[in-house]
Amino acid sequence: MSAGVPGAVVVSTGPGGQVEAAAGLADVSTGGPLTAGHRFRIGSVTKIFVAALVLQLVADGTLDLDAVAEPFLEDVTIRQLLNHTSGLDDFDIDHATFWEPYRKDPDHRWELEARDELLLVLAKPRLFSPGEGWAYHGSNYLALRLVVEEATGVPLRDALRRRVFEPLGLEKTDLVEGPLAGDCAHGYLAPDNPILPGGPGPVDVTGIDVPFHRAGGGVVSTAGDVATLLRALLGGDLLPDRLRREMLDAVESDWEETDRYGLGIGEITALMGRQTSTCGAAWGHLGFSLGYVAIALSSEDGKRQVVICANGHPPEGDTDTFLDALGRLAWDCYCT
């Protein structure tokens, strides 16, 4: 593709129906074409799914948004975890040390339980007192995973399946633990990437499993399934209206991906601070994971969605061109 990645899928939905388009390759080695039915890692778009689950548990009285996230945290509420106002930092990972085993063995697996991850987070000083700032960190959704599993008695993956995936008919969506397989588009890094350099062509990272903060970035889905989730969530089919309003009760977010951040979902007027919407704000999330990029946008009333999934990252010098191309495509689809 001219944007510098192997391929991309776009799904646009509105009152007139749904339009799907795919371009490029799902597998560079075989030349297999990408289709709208291929699955992708959607990175932090996962947070919308997890937030929807948490709010369902609030709706049935299992959880309380403004209750402390016991027994894991003594002074942070579930709301503060959802909207990243907890003050939690992430635990430090030395990137050179982290990626070295994968360079030697792509099948390498880090073994660390979620509770152990949280202990590493809690060993670090807070960035600020709960509710007195905003900082986007996956540790918030790591803690939410533990809260959900404590409250439901089942793994997060099972809770998502029972309460979100299956009721909405999201047959190609799952929280994946391990390498991708089946009808998944292969994910690629550019040969000059600093993580797992290779070449001369794109570096296939489909089989690499990065387990940390899976609750905030581990869902694999199709562009169509993500659009269905956004339509149900913001259209009022998945949550009571009072909790839909709570979800969109956003705080200012000091970063380039959103203007304001609600409960697992952000208000967006410019993609990565670059391409600006010509028709007002959308609600959604961006997702960047190893070898994949996802953009998920919806109107506040749930009547329009645009979801873009790409199976690669461009060469270092082409990142701005890539983001500009995605931004123009996203807003062109969203605003027409």
- The span between the termini is 23 Å
Uncertain stretches: none
Number of domains: 1
Beta-strand portion reads 15-25%
CATH superfamily: DD-peptidase/beta-lactamase superfamily
CATH class call = Alpha Beta
Query: How can the largest sheet be summarized?
Result: 9 strands, antiparallel
Tally of separate helices = 10
Would you tell me which CATH topology applies?
Beta-lactamase
Number of strands: 16
Which overall shape is indicated by the principal axes computed on the Cα atoms? Answer: globular
Q: Order of strands side by side in the largest beta sheet?
A: 3-2-1-16-15-14-11-10-9
What pattern of helices and strands is seen along the backbone? EEEEHHHHHHEEEHEHHEEEEEEEEH
Structural class: alpha+beta
Q: What's the overall average pLDDT, rounded?
A: 93
CATH architecture: 3-Layer(aba) Sandwich
- Radius of gyration, Cα only, in angstroms? 19 Å
Q: Give me the oligomer status.
A: single chain
